[in-house]
Amino acid sequence: MNLPESYIPILIQAGVAVAFVAVSLLGAHFLGPKQKKGNSVKNQSWECGVPVEGNARTPFSIKYFLTAVLFVLFDIEIVFFYPYAVNFREFGIEGFLAVLTFVAIFFMAFFYVWKRGALDWDK
Question: What distance in Å separates the CA atoms of residue 49 and residue 53, rounded to the nearest whole number?
């Protein structure tokens, strides 16, 4: 097998990463605390000393996840505005038109989400 010299550092880094994961998992398994089997009070779940109420597998409303996705979507939009704000003079009219196109696409997404009722919490 004849690899170019530029691949050698990548292979070394990948090998170190795999070795680190393997050592971490094996170390946690063999050196970590052992829990006894059974249904003792010590092995039960507690939240800040308060007894658990209900099941941990209670489904969440889809609104929770939809809000999280929308937050990430519109938060990333703001991240893309920073380079434009720093260099807006160098971009000229072409950069301004590109940013207007970018904003128009996100406004269309926002109005779509709004019309679909994703921002209406009463439903």
Answer: 12
pLDDT tens-place string over residues 91-107: 889 988 988 998 898 88
CB 118 within 8 A of CB 66: yes
3-state secondary structure of 77: helix
pTM for this model (two decimals): 0.45
Question: 118 CB contacts (<8 Å, ≥6 apart)?
Answer: 63, 66, 70
Q: Which of 59, 70, 60 is nearest to 118 (CA)?
A: 70
User: What are the φ/ψ torsions at residue 46 (nearest 5 degrees)?
Assistant: -135, 145
DSSP state of 123: -
